[in-house]
Give the backbone structure.
Amino acid sequence: MPRWFMEEKAINDELVDLDLQSNQHRHADLLGTNLFGKLPALIDSDVLLEVGSPLKLFESGSILLHLAETYSGDVITPSQCALTSHWVLFANATLSIA
Ligand SMILES: N[C@@H](CCC(=O)N[C@@H](CS)C(=O)NCC(=O)O)C(=O)O
């Protein structure tokens, strides 16, 4: 989903493909971004934490919310924020297990 969204919104990225069959997602590099070893995961070097390190996110919903709020230009007003959360949480919490 984040990949799809980034393509739709022309958000630049560098994709790192990991081969689940050969357990590349269990490698220390990914575990540093998602300690649960799940994909997708995002490192956003343009957004720094207070300690100076790049923002690292996992969970497709949280990645989508970050991308939408930071790069799409579509999420500005309180109602846009609320409705974006509404549909992302619906997709992740309800639709994905239906
Ligand atoms: N709720 C998570 C699901 C993450 C997830 O289960 N990802 C799968 C790939 S689609 C994965 O990493 N599987 C490898 C594994 O569980 O070892 C999300 O939306 O990001």
Summary: The pocket of glutathione is lined by residues 20, 25, 37-40, 59-60, 92 (CB under 6 Å). The chain has four helices and two strands.
